[in-house]
Amino acid sequence: MSVTIYDVAREANVSMATVSRVINGTAVVKEETKKRVQDAIERLGYRPNAVARGLASKRTRTIGVIVPDVSAAFVAEIVRGIEDIANMYNYHIILTNSDADTHREVSLIGTMWEKQVDGILYMTNILNQEHITAFEQAEIPVVLCATEDPEKRIPSVNIDNRKAGSDAANYLEKKSCQNIAIVSPDIGTSLIADHRIEGVRKKLGNKCTFIHVGKGKYEQALPILRNIFQNKNYDGVIAMSDELGLASVHAIHDNGFQVPHDVRIIAFDNTRLATMVRPELTVIAQPMYDFGAVSMRLLTKMLLDEPVDTYNVILQHNIIERQSS
Amino acid sequence: MSVTIYDVAREANVSMATVSRVINGTAVVKEETKKRVQDAIERLGYRPNAVARGLASKRTRTIGVIVPDVSAAFVAEIVRGIEDIANMYNYHIILTNSDADTHREVSLIGTMWEKQVDGILYMTNILNQEHITAFEQAEIPVVLCATEDPEKRIPSVNIDNRKAGSDAANYLEKKSCQNIAIVSPDIGTSLIADHRIEGVRKKLGNKCTFIHVGKGKYEQALPILRNIFQNKNYDGVIAMSDELGLASVHAIHDNGFQVPHDVRIIAFDNTRLATMVRPELTVIAQPMYDFGAVSMRLLTKMLLDEPVDTYNVILQHNIIERQSS
DNA sequence: CTGTTAGCGCCTTCAC
DNA sequence: GTGAAGGCGCTAACAG
Question: Do A55 and B60 touch (CB under 8 A)?
Fold first, then answer.
């Protein structure tokens, strides 16, 4: 059978309490006995059982991470940020995909509850009352990651999406674009996209047209956009993601027009895709890794009762000018 | 305080054993008392504590997943496959990134041991004795995912990389390529790449040249390749990943040559990148999602003592012909 | 079909 | 500075 704290205690001629103390550094132990215990641990190849620990201490050092889909580049980058910081603070993450399905999300929050996670990092497109209720019921600290709660009831890490939207609009306007197409997922699909659109509209008023392309996937968007850009109606495009920006580029090329000569394009995100294509995409860069890292850090602060100055962190976005504009 | 199985028992006027039975369906319970228990559970909003469960039953329904880096498209896709199947069998995953660093990997295996995971899904570039030893010490079922153990000591899911390499070579040869460049990460970086190269070499002999580009990242590879393709020395390229394939395309274009007119390119992987660029990449497609899904399924079989016919699964790869060749 | 009784491996007072 | 003892919430025999 596996070796327990009790075995170590006997081997070192101390009580299990003492072993526990040296393992956790939870109290002062005489240097000599500490050494004896450490030797015993090594000799026996002892590993503390985290499950038993979790049961006794009521803290599992595990964070539940709920995202729409890890296989999306944007999300994967965030998850990496989360895991890095979690790891730094000696936490581990249970990762689940929700496909942004509310029913599934609520169910997952319940699962995290059962798993006794110390906290939840949550990412989704639309946050509604069902989520809030589930969070409250589970009584677990939650941080929203790249996800907005309009009423700011829950700690979160975001960029200022309205500002980002208007920045994008501003940029194209300064480039003298007159007819700007906003390429985005269907309205109501993502609160964040909706906020950006608000920002754009506020700036551009009627100088822009909204083009909705389903769920925002390249494959789905391309044929739609190819149709849209058949004629030279637009001289500027704001795309809600690199993927949609790229689909726009290709749709425009396919109709015999040039980017940026005929149409200037700016896209959101700045995933690696943006610099791996020709023309390279001008972007409103989002700090994806930092979304993850900062939200995880905020969560650790909450868990460790460290002081936090803002529970709704706004990270900076910035424009990176490249070939597509 | 949170409600326990004991509270439910009292509320339903039964023993906690009975509650446990209806929760787990572990024995037949009279329909009426079952109903009473279920009502009590609902009334109290009871959720079984998975940690306590894990301690008592010695099974946590948690799988440790160790990958080099989730933010890599290839990996993220696999992780999605893993999580989907895990979820289907009511398991959850603890995800960690190793950056393919042996020291860190061994340490992570230890962590998984402490966490009492029921099994480990493992992905890395090079598997050596240290890993094997760590696995044996932890005594946890392991499945290698898109990772080869040359001696097949550990269950695994892969494609036949040597065959895939020779298929790629074959393909370009049939297209009458005479001078083929093999663009790959530095040798010894990845066993899988090395095996593919073996396959290529066996087929092509001296008709090919090996070009090593560090860690296989686009940004790093591009300048190197731009240099390599300055002159019209090659008429074919086999790239070890979509990313390197794309870097080759751009390097060739930058030197004023055309793909596929002057140089035909075939790449490995078939991540979404392959169809999101122009020209679209001809690929040796790897079943990434299935790597994850199948390896997770194999692991569940091992955990549930279901019969398994092969512990070293070989998935099919296939050539998808697109614009780059 | 249901209840009783031990633990699972560890943390955490409380004494000494 | 160290030991003893009582849980944490649940599963798993073993009785009845």
Answer: no
Which nucleotide lies nearest residue B4, CA to C1'? D9
**Structural domains of chain B ordered from first start:** 1-58 (1.10.260.40), 161-286 (3.40.50.2300)
Chain B partners of A110 at a C-beta cutoff of 8 Å?
47
B218-256 pLDDT per residue, tens: 999 999 999 999 987 899 999 999 999 999 999 999 999
pLDDT at B1: 61
Per-residue pLDDT band for A312 (boundaries 50, 70, 90) equals very high
pLDDT grade, residue A207 (50/70/90)?
A: confident
Q: How far apart are CA B298 and CA B46, in angstroms?
A: 33
Question: Alpha-carbon distance A23 to A21, whole Å?
Answer: 5
In this complex, which of B75, B111, B114 lies closest to A49 when CB atoms are compared? B114
Give the confidence band of A187 by pLDDT, cuts at 50, 70, 90: confident
pLDDT band at A27 (very low <50, low <70, confident <90, very high): confident
Determine the distance in angstroms separating the CA of A1 from the nearest CA of chain B, rounded to an integer: 11
3-state SS, residue A183: strand
pLDDT of residue B2: 84
Q: How far is CA B76 from CA A232, B137, B238, B309, B320, in A?
A: 38, 28, 23, 28, 21
CA distances from A183 to A325, B118, B223 (A): 16, 45, 33
Contact, B105 vs B97, CB < 8 A?
Answer: no
Q: What's the CA–C1' distance between A311 and C10, in Å?
A: 34
Tell me if A50 and B79 make a contact (CB, 8 A cut-off).
no
Q: Which nucleotides of D are covered by protein (CB under 7 A)?
A: 1-13
Minimum CA–CA partner of A81 in chain B:
B71
Residue from A108, A121, A276, A289 to probe the interface with B (highest B Cβ count within 10 Å): A276
Substitution target from A90, A115, A259, A290 for chain B, most B beta carbons within 10 A: A115
Nearest residue to nucleotide C13 when comparing alpha carbons to its C1'? A17
Letter for the amino acid at A256? G
Q: Which nucleotides of C are covered by protein (CB under 7 A)?
A: 1-5, 7-13
* Integer Cα distance of B179 and A313 in angstroms: 55
CA angle B92, B93, B94 (to 5 degrees): 135
Residues A183, A249 contacting (CB under 8 angstroms)? no
* pLDDT at site A20: 94
Chain centroid to CA A167: 22
pLDDT < 70: residue spans in chain B? 1
Q: Would the Cβ of B21 be found within 7 angstroms of any atom in strand C?
A: yes
pLDDT in tens, A132-162: 999 999 999 999 999 999 999 999 999 999 9
Rounded mean pLDDT of A269-284? Answer: 97
d(CA B77, CA A69): 10
